[in-house]
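Dear support,

Our group has been running a series of protein-ligand predictions, and this particular one with FE2/S2 (inorganic) cluster is the one our PI (initials K.S.) wants archived with full inputs and outputs. We had some confusion internally about which version of the output was final, so please treat the block below as the authoritative record. The input we submitted was:
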Amino acid sequence: MYKIVKKRKLYENIKEIKVEAPLVAREAKPGQFVIVKIDEKGERIPLTIADFDRKKGTVRIIFLEIGKTTKQLGMLNEGDTLATFSGPLGKPSAIKKYGTVVCIGGGVGIASLYPIVRALKEKGNKVISILGARTKDLLILENEIKEYCDEFYITTDDGSKGKKGLVTDALQELIDKQIKIDLVMAVGPVIMMKAVSELTKPYGIKTLVSLNPIMVDGTGMCGSCRVTVGGETKFACVDGPEFDGHKVDFDNLLIRNKRFLEEEGLSLKLFLRKHWQGDDHEY
Ligand SMILES: Cc1cc2nc3c(=O)[nH]c(=O)nc-3n(C[C@H](O)[C@H](O)[C@H](O)COP(=O)(O)OP(=O)(O)OC[C@H]3O[C@@H](n4cnc5c(N)ncnc54)[C@H](O)[C@@H]3O)c2cc1C
Ligand code: FES
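Confirmed final output from the archive:
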């Protein structure tokens, strides 16, 4: 059992928890994830390691309550336990000295970006970050990320903070200034990573994206997380989750991520009914 030692609400439906998991904390590297199962009957969901403290033996995860399992996770409190917290899984981010790296985070993907930004800075890169969200309240970890950046930009869809527009608008401005960019690293919604990759491709700027297909085992056995990269089938849980954005078939990923929409909607509906009406049926 893995104990939740700290819980914080970052926004209405965005929560941060720190979990006591010394073995995961000891091995964790930026870009890796864990598979979480709340109780014995629960589903397994992947969540990125948003930070780790090797001394305290804790791992931080930040999640958006989007469906049944993330809502249930958000209802847990300090002192509650998780049945499974497996990891670290996936290949770590390719952290090395590139020169100038533009790190782009969208929505809750910003949480995954934080340890990557820190590690890239510690390797001696010039780090420029662009964080984007629909509105200012959804911007997370702004100050933590800023601390490791040489330049820092914010975009919001509604203009409530930073520049009104998309992260790609801010990236285009950097490109137009003729700054030599050695790498772009993008983590966020699939549609955002697709747009970033399409923007950088004609300029030949190497671009890495962190993919979020539906995962089950997280160890390369079930095939659920298969993605097409450079015409080849890859399993994001073991071959990724980071891939060359110029080679990813994003449209295929967008379609595959919608394949259980009906079941997911029903599962959430039944869970909430059970929660609010005390219906004790097992779903
Ligand atoms: C490597 C990786 C890292 C991730 N890191 C984070 C993170 O740090 N924070 C965060 O908020 N989210 C993260 N996600 C997405 C997160 O796993 C899903 O939001 C979560 O599984 C949704 O489960 P649910 O039951 O609450 O919602 P559901 O109703 O089951 O699903 C809502 C949406 O989430 C996606 N999803 C559902 N089940 C899975 C699954 N098993 N694996 C992946 N996606 C799924 C589907 O596209 C679906 O449309 C990550 C996904 C991957 C693959
Ligand atoms: S999640 Fe099963 S193969 Fe990747």
